[in-house]
Amino acid sequence: MVLGGWLEYQLVIETLKITVSGDRLSRAVEIITQPIEQDSKFEHIDEVVLNKIVISEYSKSYLTKEVDEENKSGYFTIYKRLVERVKDMILMVNPDYPYPSSLSSTVLEGALHQHFLKDHFKNLTDCNDQVSPTDYFKHLVFQTLK
Hints:
This protein has helices at about 1-15, 20-35, 45-55, 65-70, 75-95, 100-120, 135-145. By secondary structure, it is mainly α.
């Protein structure tokens, strides 16, 4: 979950000073769903290659027979914190929304899935060179929270 820690770091740093809840959630969705680009500040990490691996392999990290034991051992702590952080932002936009955890985890998992589909199964997604997963998820989240 190296990428999860990196996403959490970006999420905290880049939303910290945003005071408008809708803007904060919008930025969070952008961070979670944007394609990863190489950042010269972190030359020791090839973020692009790491992200490609995560997109290709993400479901294998929890679709195992040992998932319950791994969960008890804390393997998914960062992922759970990410879901919780986004859930809290969703509730700040609409405190009455009944499914904030489900929406939050859907955005996190769905972002990886949409990037995978965009790269490998183009006919199974509306995301392409003109419509990004970010566009899709921002629309999904904010239409859902109306």
